[in-house]
Amino acid sequence: MNLALRDIRHQLGRFVLTTVGVGLLLMTVMGMGGIYRGLVDDATFLVDRVGADLWVVQHDTRGPFAEVSRLPASLEDRVRAVPGVTTARRFVSHTIQREYRGAALRMTVQGLAWPEDRGDWLPLIAGRRIEAAHFELVADRSLGLALGATLHLGHDRYTVVGLTSGMIGQAGDGMGFFTCSDAQAIQNDAGGEAQRLERAARSTRVEEADLGRSQPGLVERAAGASANLPVLPQPPVSAVLVWLSPGADAVQAARTMAGWGDVSVYTSAEQRALLLAGPVDKSRRQIGLFRILLVSISTIIMALVIYTMTLDKIHDIALLKLMGARNRVLIGLILQQALLLGALGYGIAWLIGQRLFLLFPRRVLIVEQDLLMLAGIVVGISVLASGLGVWKAMRVQAGEVLS
Amino acid sequence: MNGLAVEAKDLRKVYGHDNTEVVALKGATFTVARGEVVALLGPSGAGKSTLLTAVGLITQPTAGTVSIGGVPVVDGPRELVDVRAFRRQHIGFVFQKANLIPFLNAVENVQVAMEINDVPSREARRRAQELLDYLGVADRADHLPTELSGGQQQRIAVARALANRPSLILADEPTAALDSQRGRQVMELFARVAHEQGAAVIVVTHDHRALDVFDRHLEMEDGELRGA
User: Fold this and answer.
1) Which of A6, A325, A399 is nearest residue B58 as measured by Cβ atoms?
2) In angstroms, what separates the C-alpha of A308 from chain B's closest C-alpha?
3) What CATH superfamily is the domain B4-99+165-226?
């Protein structure tokens, strides 16, 4: 006869309510773990997905995910000349926040080195990849943009031609994929007045220089669009991604590029490590500590629940002792209830979490490894929590039945 | 084991110490034979329950010895056997309140006493049903204690006390919560069990209306036992 189950059956309503409470608490622990995983996964997602062998970034910087990195677009051609390099592509990434249909729209703008990279690697769920050099974007569905929707960014209107799923930037914002030139245009967009003032200032500087006075045509050119001035550089890129041929010596290639003096070179693993050690490190540690706090609170609450359940049965425990029940019968009664409470609470946490976490604004990533670890923690908590109840039960004297 | 179910010698029990010292038992000596039903009488505070709990291995005596079924079990505060195991195997208890486990139904309350004593579940269930039948409450087997009358609860408690075929049954005012008719029925039940199953029964009681049921009376007053 299982005394634990019979006691639960007798107080089913109360046990169910307690279990739901414990379940919600465990769901919070599970959710914090998921937020932690989501944070790490979002941060490293692009690095993992792009799959480049090397990341070439501005000298002495940690790359575009950690800080501002600006490189001349022409670096791409220089990199291609390094032995072992098969492909080099510009990488442009920045975050914008604009208003869209009366609400704030935050987007990680990601540049594709079109036409070499048309976004074939993107996980499209609707629409198509980018087919034109300008004014098209592939948006992640988390941005809430419909296929065919148009977005006004700077002077231009962009049409959503494709939708992806799960393409989230390190800050948790959905990604929008544009051609690199469009991404740069969005990044360097200046208002009409700002452009007019810049042209006027440029003309004044040329007029005041000897060269401008001797060659009036230059003043006229200086008053024109920046893109038409060959003396001005192309907008910078954030990084250059490098793919090496099979068997190529990555260390040697990286050493060659790093020797140029104007760039730093990282492998994908190093870029990933920099990401985790940099922008997401504090959030990661904060969530980790909060998770430890939640586990501790869960242990205390479960211990109190089990202790209260034991106190409710104290007379029955004394009676069982009087009848000669061995300690293992009494420990089994308390421990089984604690484990059942933990196991059912865990199940409830998982079931509710599966549905609820989808509604969270940032990704809550529940992975099997974390589920197994939490299951182990729940077993540990249950055993630990039952300790207080067992301690109380062991102290009860059989004679208390008579009092 | 000899023919004596219980043999207590010079049992003393002192609560507290120095100024707060209370002597509850003053050298009680008595024997009870197998199949004998003994009433333990006396006013409140006379030490009846203390004597019962000392013999039942619930309270440690300050001095004196107790043997049950010829086996020395306590010598003063020293336990000579595993008292919990000994209670499980040899002693049945019935109290003023039935003290049934509220989350078990009638048959389970009897069954659990046997399962604690390592009787297989199916065998324990069968015997529990038999005991309920023997005590006339078989039709209440599936009812929880809250669904039973006081008399029915007390019968279940008696069935539980009998479950492991104890050599000694100790009852502390088992009829106090019952009307006189049901009280007498319970006393007669003890006598029947003692005579049919050979168990010794010691019953603490204030109820003088059913004294004719008992084989012998022991009187206690101020911690001293008379009539032993």
Assistant:
1) A399
2) 16
3) P-loop containing nucleotide triphosphate hydrolases (3.40.50.300)
